[in-house]
Amino acid sequence: QVQLVESGGGLVQAGGSLRLSCAASGRTFSRNAMGWFRQAPGKEREFVAAITWPTTWSSGSTSYADSVKGRFTISREVAKNTVYLQMNTLNPEDPAIYYCAASSVLRPVPVRGRDYDSWGQGTQVTVSS
User: Which residues share a beta bridge with 26?
Assistant: First the structure.
């Protein structure tokens, strides 16, 4: 399976920014997409963003949850098997454990947790007022 390691979490003041990173290793040939999910205390895990890997017919696509559109940006470095989540204008609704995940689904862009096969351990994001 794919092994995933997240980094970049921490404490930030409301209105500030953080960039999360996720490095993939292992059985990466089966990975067609990578995404970010988050889970806040007392809430269910929710989709944040995803990006697909290039194919012979497509350069890839992205998808975002409505709650983060315009504030968060997902990106990738294919050669490094790494995805990033740039989080801007963080607010008190954003604190959570953020998880990186890898999926074999390519089309459509996977946004369901059950579409993902491998998960990282998560990184904590805390927002202070």
Answer: 2
Q: Is 125 helix (H, G, I), strand (E, B) or coil?
A: strand
* pLDDT tens for each residue of 46-86: 999 999 988 888 888 999 999 999 999 999 998 888 999 99
- The 10 Å Cβ neighbour count of residue 58 is 11
H helices present in the chain, as ranges: none
Give the residue from 106, 104, 115, 95 showing the smallest Cα distance to 9: 95
Residue pLDDT, tens place only, 95-125 = 999 999 999 998 899 999 999 999 999 999 9
From the list 74, 76, 37, 36, the residue with the least C-alpha distance to 53 is 76
A 10 A CB-CB count for 26 gives: 14
Q: Alpha carbon of 6 to those of 42, 58, 62: distances in Å? A: 22, 27, 19
Rounded Cα–Cα distance for residues 21 and 7 (Å): 5
